[in-house]
Amino acid sequence: MEDGLGAALVWLDYAAVFVFGASGALAxxxxxxxxxxxxxFAAVTGVGGGTLxxxxxxxxxxxxxxxxxxxxxxxxxxxxWLFGAGKARLFILTWLDAxxxxxxxxxxxxxxxxxxxxxxAAVVMGVLTATFGGVLRDVLAEEPSVLxxxxxxxxxxxxxxxxxxxxxxxxVPQMPAALAGFAIGLAVRAGAILFRWSLPGFxxxxxxxxxx
Length: 212
Prior knowledge:
Layout: H1 2-5, H2 7-30, H3 35-56, H4 62-65, H5 71-83, H6 87-114, H7 119-141, H8 154-169, H9 174-195
Helix pairs in contact: 2-3, 2-5, 2-6, 2-7, 3-5, 3-7, 6-7, 6-8, 6-9, 7-8, 8-9
């Protein structure tokens, strides 16, 4: 799977673990936890989505067979601990998170397809890979879940993973399909960040914290 996706996307996979780990550490920072809790939050957030995917598709858990993946969230926790969480860093992290989200969505879907998962389920695996770590982070930090926000986030992962799987099934080579899925997902997420795109809520509801 990794050879098919190419070295660039593999590095994005590692980068996704790092930025999601950093978001977990930032959640710990807001609660003023100690360095051990920083590390725990970062690790759970960084590898949570991929762990769930591997368990569901009956694959070896990726960080168990490749422990170097754990270095990324640990480094993220240390970086947040040492350098803090200023406004500029949060801005940069938002965009790194967008890159990680879309890369993880495609990588997750690709791995599911490689293990013989049907196309529709592979899209779901891509979404879970990209978003479940954030859900765990929010639960641990007792913060509103990303699933309950109207801002387009989960939908960007869905679009990216879906585009990749559709192109793959249509016979497009895996690398171009992966790059296209990544780019499409990132375009949707970038629109949400820059222009505050959101999906319409249920008619008659006035709350602003509904799922996208």
